[in-house]
Structure formats: structure tokens, C-alpha cells
Amino acid sequence: MAQYDLTSKIGAYLDRHLVFPLLEFLHVKQVYDERELLLGKLEIVKNTRMIDYAIDIHKQLHPNAIIPEELLEKRRKVVNELKIYQEETNHIRRIFESQPVVKQIETTRDGRTLLDFLVKNYQFNIEWMDSVYIFAKSQYECGNYMSATEYLYLYRLLVRISII
């Protein structure tokens, strides 16, 4: 089956986060040696913010070795940045997670109506959406795809209508 695998050819043109599921599939199907795949995964995630996963892969490759200080330092940096992004968007995320807003989002697919609702009831400022975008991007880079998807959906919905 390895002779038919195109992962190495198409992987060069994909975002690292899109290559990762391909490697997971190859791992499950046992197409390649497990160690080779783990080394490939580590190579991919070491240049992302998926640092906890990189540490897990390192532990699988070197079960008795100490985690390299560079990985631990990168983890501290990523965690600190995430805390800052969370603090910057905390008030916005609370608004989006409140029951009336959740209900409004579910029932209204029109960005203008949603924006009017947010401005009227929560003194919402469209400029806050820049920090929501940064938060969503950081979630994506850390591999938290569902969270990133939710906030990018809201960003797209609200920002698109403010441009029109």
C-alpha cells in the first residue's frame, strides 16, 4: 500500500494542520513503520503551537528521556500567549456564550440582525472582532479546531456585514 501513498507529494502543498490527519490515517492503517511516522509527526508539529502533542510524540519516541528544555520553554511561551488572548477576549466570549446570544445566533443567520442585537443589548463594538480573530487563529494553531471554527464563523458573519 505504501507505493500508492501520495501523502509526501500532496503534503508539501498543504497546511501542516491538514497533513496531520493524513499521517494519523497512515498510522492507523500501519502503512509505514511506527517510528518513522512518529518522527514525521514530530517534524510537522514542532513548527506549530501544538506543543503538548509534540511533547507526547517525544515521549513515545524516547520513553525514558527527559523532555528537551526547548519544548518546555516553547510550551510556557504558548500557554502565556493563550492566557493573554483569553483575557483580551474574555468579555466578548462571555457575550457569545450567554443564552440569549446563543439563541439569537441559532435562529438568525443574518449578520446585520445579529450585530444590531449585540449592539442594542450588549453595547457590542465591531472593532472587538479583531481580537476574536486573533483568538480563533491561536486556537487553530494549537489544534483546537472546533473552538477556532466557532469563533471564525462569528467573525465572518459579523465582519462581512460591517464591510458592506
TrEMBL record:
Q: Which GO terms describe its cellular component?
A: eukaryotic translation initiation factor 3 complex
| Any Pfam family matching the protein | eIF3_N
Keyword ATP-binding recorded: no
Q: Which UniProt keywords apply?
A: Cytoplasm, Initiation factor, Protein biosynthesis
User: Locate the Eukaryotic translation initiation factor 3 subunit E N-terminal domain: which residues?
Assistant: 5-139
- Cite a single GO MF annotation: translation initiation factor activity
Query: What is the name of the protein in this document?
Result: Eukaryotic translation initiation factor 3 subunit E
Please give the organism. Caerostris extrusa (Bark spider)
